[in-house]
Amino acid sequence: MKAKPVREPDSGALAGLQERIGHFFVDPALLERALTHVSALPAAQAQRRVDSYQRLEFLGDRVLGLAVSEMLVSQFPQAEEGELSRRLADLVRKETCAEVARDWGVGEVVRLGEGEAQTGGAAKGAILGDVCESILGAIFLDAGFSAARETVRRFFNDRMLNPARPLRDPKTALQEWAQGRGLPPPAYRQSGRLGPDHAPVFVIEVTVSGFEPVAAQGSSKRFAEQAGAQKFLTREGVWKDSA
């Protein structure tokens, strides 16, 4: 039995999507393709996949990477390559793209086959992230890089300035924090070990000169050290509790 799309977005839904994105397509077929999951294609087409959003996703991934890289270089003129790379990875990750797609309301208009729709495909982060990239690729083909770049800036700028996740691992962040205050590097000492031999839990004490030490646990020394560094950063207000 051929998989069929659950629905075809009507013109009003597509117009609403374009209004939310801030780009109205000269070639509406590009947007329709950007919204078409491979499961929505007839069997003969599905074997080739070229009529789904996959090619546009491939293009949009590169467009997004270039646009975000340009934003980062402009916004953080003193940042070294390592920091820029961490910020780039955070912004172009599939989860971030899925958040943007949710802001656009993509789940309401994405074209899915019956089986994919019944398993909640319209809410899956992987599909939404793909469609975000495919729409950016479609905007690039429809109106050029300037239009795509403006769309990226509109929806990724606040995320760039207010990252939702730590950009460094806790040990690196704590070491940089200590160095920035002229303090010696943090010290990590195993102060205990719990649990059976086959499933040990290590207790690590983290000390920074002039501050009360903190202790944390982990299934390995490395995990316990990271947990201790994060606990210290949270206690001192460097990271928020959600970090």
Strand content: 5-15%
Largest sheet: 3 strands, antiparallel
- Write down the overall mean pLDDT: 88
Q: Which CATH C-level class of the largest domain is it?
A: Mainly Alpha
Q: What is the correct CATH architecture of the largest domain? A: Orthogonal Bundle
What coarse outline follows from CA principal-axis ratios? elongated
Please describe what this structure looks like.
- The longest helix has 22 residues, at about 55-75.
- The radius of gyration is 23 Å and the shape is elongated.
- A 3-stranded antiparallel sheet has the order 1-2-3, with helices on one face.
- Helix 4 crosses helix 8.
- The chain has about 240 residues and is mostly helical.
- It has helices at about 10-20, 30-35, 45, 55-75, 80-90, 95-105, 115-120, 125-145, 145-160, 170-180, 220-235, and strands at about 185-195, 200-205, 215-220.
- The chain contains 11 helices and 3 strands, in the order ααααααααααβββα.
- The model has no long low-confidence stretch (mean pLDDT about 90).
- The chain has 2 domains: about 10-160, Ribonuclease iii, N-terminal Endonuclease Domain, Chain A (Orthogonal Bundle), CATH 1.10.1520; about 170-235, Double Stranded RNA Binding Domain (2-Layer Sandwich).
